[in-house]
Amino acid sequence: MATASAVSPPPTRRSESTGLAGSLAIVGLWRREFTGYSRVHLTADVLAGLNVGAVSLPLALAFGVASGATAAAGLVTAITSGLVMGFLGGAPFQVSGPTGAMAAILVGITATYGLPGMWLAGAMAGLIIMGLGLFRMGRLIQFIPSPVIVGFTSGIALVIASGQLDNVLGLEVGNFPQQYLHLLAVIENLGLIDWHAIVVTAIVIGTMVTVPRWNRNIPASLLGIALATIVANVLDWPVHMIGHIPRTIYLPDRLDPSSITLDGVAMLVAPAVSIAVLASIKSLLCGTVGGNLTGVKMNNDQELIALGLGNLIIPFLGGVPASAAVARTSVAIRSGGRTRLVPIIHGLVLLAVALLIGPALERVPLAALGGVLLVTSVRVNDWVTMRFFVHRRLWHAVAVMLVTMVATYVFNLTQAVVIGMAVSVLWFVRQASVIDVSRQPVDGTRMKERGQELHGDHPGVEVVYVTGPLFFGNIATFLEALEDVPTSTALILSLRGMPTLDAVGVQAIEETILRQHHGGGSVHLVGLQPASRRRLERSGVLERLGTGRVHWSADQAITAIDAEHHAVDADTPAPHSI
Hints:
2 domains; 25 helices; Transcription Regulator spoIIAA; 7 strands; 578 residues; five-stranded mixed sheet
């Protein structure tokens, strides 16, 4: 295969604006991408496309089978993704197709609803993803915590690995809605293991592990499958093969529009959402990785539109849902490709393979594809981030990651993400609920040293310093700290260390003001942050507080209270002697 090209890319903008769908953002992307394009750039893109095609072929076959469909379905998906998503995508480097992550959830959907259900859910997911792009929701990825993403990625790796145990061991156990049921079925049939399949798998794994150590430009997975296929066929081993691959991308088994019903759509809403969430997350994460490697920022919304359209089309051709693939995208970038011609050429290469050498692919052992997926399941994990969490002793992140990983394996992606997000939110609330409420008496001596003369010692003045956000999670701590403050005193609340407060925090401050007023005392607020002050103003709390009772510093508040008391004392007539 071609080596990485040193050809410089044509001029590109580092950032692409995110326009509302329906705009011609894609036209601007094309124009900027191909400005100054030359024959040298075309040569680099063609070579990169060939490289990506060589890497994608075994993965497309493997992920088609792993999805509960066929190798031909995976090939159709890779071809359509390359052509449609490559042509309309939001970045020049993004390569999409069937992925292990997607296969991990599709196999359960296929086992539960059959291939027609999986196809319909995929088409519905395409509409959902297009809607996300149309309404400019491409930035939502930033709201998913890193431990959740790492956790569900690792959970997907477990699903991929356990889902291939039957192929690797030469067993036939079928598909199951949950992977742990599949694992139990494999364990029950361990007495039927076929050593031929194990040897085929070992050939592929050995090739994929050793070849990159001395030449990373050789597509090791493709070479491993070729070697394993030759051995299995020459020796006439009784291993399960891929089977028939039609010489077309319009497969006989595909989504039939006439079979779509409202009841079927309603039944598949949850699976469709799972597919849409996973495809969107994987594609946007891939765009971030590619952007870091190339310096070109992806138009997230345009990418979602292209991803949605591709997934809407694919089921009607008989393929499986797709998303962007980090490995294939990285190969495209490392090979010197910089424009969307790379994924398009990759799609054309796979189309030529399907039309010209489909019969040869029919003799590929399923165990060989299982070997590819076992290696993929190891490589898909974000080991760098995992090590970072452990080495930095970020045990909360490790806990969220493990919970999400287990939930992904036991339940499904959507439930796993919700569970992971819930655990993350609970941890955040716990951390954010830490609030420090301390009380200090008025130090008249210190104030005099600073040139501020007071008319008295003011033992009836309490200064309370609040540090931390004031919200529902720590209101009890705040109110408990003020319980023994006499209601007849002037209470100074120093809120400079309070970055924000919610509606419950506003209510707590108002209750404190009313309590002090009812007992004959007063409340002065000090050091309010602008956002907190606006919220208290809008809610009417500052009006209830009274005029002249919001100050910049505690010293100013004490001085104001001192002046107020002195004025009251001056207005009070002295008692007459009898």
